Structures are given as structure tokens and as C-alpha cells.
UniProtKB/TrEMBL annotation, chain B:
This is SCO family protein. Belongs to the SCO1/2 family. Pfam families: SCO1-SenC. Keywords: Copper. It comes from Sphingobacterium bovistauri. PANTHER family: ELECTRON TRANSPORT PROTIN SCO1/SENC FAMILY MEMBER (PTHR12151), LINALOOL DEHYDRATASE_ISOMERASE DOMAIN-CONTAINING PROTEIN (PTHR12151:SF25). Residues 45-208 form the Thioredoxin domain. The keyword Protease does not apply.
Length: 132, 211
């Protein structure tokens, strides 16, 4: 019975997972190019200069701001994993909505515990509400 | 005939290698062979390029010089604090070496800022602290453009002020290993994990020379 359920649910998730996995693979390539220098190959950050991307609470609480941070950069104090960081993050205005969706799918599923795709629609919606 | 010659050559190599079992790092750079007269006799001497004397201001606003690195080996590189490209990876890798040898007075680290406009000592201090540097074994220095860019050539490192690259300065991310005679004994790509592993191994080889 349990096996039946898990097969059903994995079946149901499989479609979603293929898309999420594909987004994450594309996102990893972009992450290496644009993010890894500072945030590290495992999202570990660097000392107290650059924050880790592994704070699941930060990723969850700020999910609707993440696209804006990548696109427009970030400055001022933030708290990640209980540590204060205050180093300006440069904007990457050239990234498309789809690029950002790929990157955020990779970051939220590999460094955070999300198991769903960060869609292009979600990125578009979030970007229209950036505070700047 | 050739076989005999090879046998002799091989024997000679074996014989020579008996004298120094430990691996030794090469001296890097173009050597200059000069003839000079000593006691009325002409002798040939080989001059290896060495890092010239220097004075730079460090993260504590203290003037440091080449003398602070006497009787030590050190690893030098060039960076700037708001460098968006290769520096974070390079400094992350140099940090591995710093953490491995922290407290070992036989080795030091020297990062030169190539952003002479912005990277004042207090900026370097804040950067060093946030990076996780807790003692004076790793020095972060600033100096005049002529001095910093001039000495980068001696370390065989390319540096250039260039408004067309991200951050405004173009440079290469090499980590350079220097011995007690200020000779370059190794050059490693600080943005590459395997090269960084090689640096850690070769630091041990160089340290062993002075034991």
C-alpha cells in the first residue's frame, strides 16, 4: 500500500521533477559563470564577505525578492544564517527572466530544500515588484 | 655505442640523484649568465631574477618591507577588494593555504591591492577580517600605482588599469611562491582547485629546504 502510494506520488512528481532537474542543470551552468566566484561551488559563501546561499529560511522568507537581487544587485546590511553581511552585490542586468528562473531553481533546490521549479512566470511577477 | 653512452648517462643520472633525494623546486624566470673577474680569473656566474626591495602600507597602516619576509617563504598575489571576477575564488583558495599554515612562522602571505584609489588600509583591514584573517601572517598592502604595478612585473603577474573590464582593473589570478633568496619557485593558477592543491604540496617541499 505504501509502495503503491510512493510510486503514485513519484509518478506524479516525475513530470515536475524532469522540468525542475532540467532547470537546475541549466541553472548550474549560469551559476558557475555569474555567482560561483563569490558564493562558492557549494553555495558556502566566503568568510563574512559573501553570504552562503544555504540558509533555507532566508531563501524561503525572501523567495519573492530573489529575482530582484540577482537582476538589480543588493547593498546594505543583511542577516544570513545569523551573521551580518554588508558587501555590495553587483547587478547582472543582462540575465533574461528564463536565466534567472534557471539559477533560482538551481539555488533553491540544491542549496535550499525546495523541490519545485522556480518558473519564468514567477520571476516575471517578482521583477515587476522590485523595490528600488 | 649509443647503448653504452645511454648506460653511462643513466648511471650518471642515478649517481647525481643520489646526492639530493628530496625533490627540489626550480627557480623560475629568465636567468642571466654573466662573466666576471675574481682574483684575476674570469668566472661564469648565473644570476636568477629576484623580487627587489619594497615598502608598502599594510592593513594596519604600518609600513612593511621585504625585510619582514626575510628568513621566510611567502606566497604573493594581486587582487582588489571589490573585484567582481576572479579574486573571490583566488582568495578562497589562498585562504586554504593560510588556514593550513596558520601559526607557522616559516611562511607568510602577501596580497597586493591593485586598486590604489579605493583600497586604503582601513578597507583592506575590513576585507581581511571578513575573509577570516586573524593574525599578521597574511599581509594586505597598498602602494603607489607605479610601485604596485612595477613589482607585479617582477612576480611575473599581469596587472593593468582597464575601464573596459568588470571592476576597472585587469589582472591574472596567479599565486607566486617565493623562497628565502626572494627567488620565484612556483607559479599557480589561484582560480583552479588542482593548481591550489599543487601549491600546498610544493609549499611543503620548499619548507623542507630550510629545515
Amino acid at each position: 500500500m505504501i509502495i503503491g502510494f510512493s510510486q503514485l506520488s513519484s509518478c506524479h512528481n516525475n513530470n515536475l521533477n524532469i522540468q525542475t532537474a532540467q532547470y537546475a542543470v541549466n541553472g548550474q551552468k549560469l551559476y558557475r559563470t555569474h555567482c560561483q566566484n563569490c558564493h562558492g561551488a557549494k553555495g558556502e559563501g566566503l568568510g563574512k564577505l559573501y553570504p552562503p546561499l544555504t540558509d533555507n529560511k532566508y531563501l524561503t522568507d525572501n523567495r519573492n525578492k530573489l529575482a530582484c537581487i540577482i537582476k538589480n544587485g543588493l547593498s546594505g546590511e543583511i542577516v544570513v544564517n545569523g551573521e551580518i553581511y554588508n558587501q555590495a552585490m553587483p547587478a547582472i542586468a543582462t540575465l533574461t527572466d528564463l536565466d534567472i528562473a534557471y539559477i533560482l531553481t538551481y539555488v533553491t533546490t540544491h542549496f535550499g530544500d525546495s523541490d519545485s521549479t522556480f518558473t519564468q512566470e514567477e520571476v516575471k511577477k517578482n521583477l515587476s515588484n522590485c523595490t528600488k | 655505442m649509443i647503448r653504452n653512452f645511454l648506460a653511462v648517462a643513466a648511471a650518471t643520472i642515478v649517481f647525481l640523484s643520489c646526492e639530493s633525494q628530496a625533490p627540489k623546486l626550480p627557480i623560475i624566470g629568465d636567468r642571466e649568465v654573466i662573466e666576471k673577474v675574481v682574483d684575476g680569473k674570469s668566472v661564469v656566474d648565473t644570476i636568477y631574477p629576484a623580487i627587489p626591495d619594497f615598502k608598502f602600507l599594510n592593513q594596519d597602516s604600518v609600513l612593511i618591507s621585504n625585510k619582514d619576509f626575510d628568513n621566510k617563504i611567502y606566497v604573493a598575489n594581486f587582487f582588489f577588494t571589490h573585484c567582481p571576477s576572479i579574486c573571490p575564488t583566488m582568495q578562497r583558495n589562498l585562504l586554504k593555504a593560510y588556514q593550513k599554515y596558520k601559526g607557522n612562522e616559516a611562511i607568510a602571505f602577501l596580497s597586493h591591492s591593485i586598486d590604489f584609489k579605493y583600497d586604503h588600509p582601513h578597507v583592506l583591514k575590513s576585507y581581511a577580517t571578513k575573509l577570516g584573517v586573524e593574525n599578521d601572517q597574511w599581509q594586505f598592502v597598498t602602494g603607489s600605482k607605479a610601485d604596485i604595478y612595477g613589482i607585479s612585473d617582477k612576480y611575473l603577474i599581469f596587472t593593468k588599469e582597464d575601464e573596459n573590464v568588470a571592476g576597472g582593473y585587469d589582472h591574472s589570478g596567479y599565486l607566486v611562491l617565493i623562497d628565502h633568496n626572494k627567488h620565484i619557485r612556483g607559479v599557480y593558477d589561484g582560480t583552479n582547485d588542482e593548481e591550489t592543491e599543487k601549491l600546498l604540496k610544493e609549499i611543503d617541499i620548499l619548507l623542507a629546504e630550510y629545515k
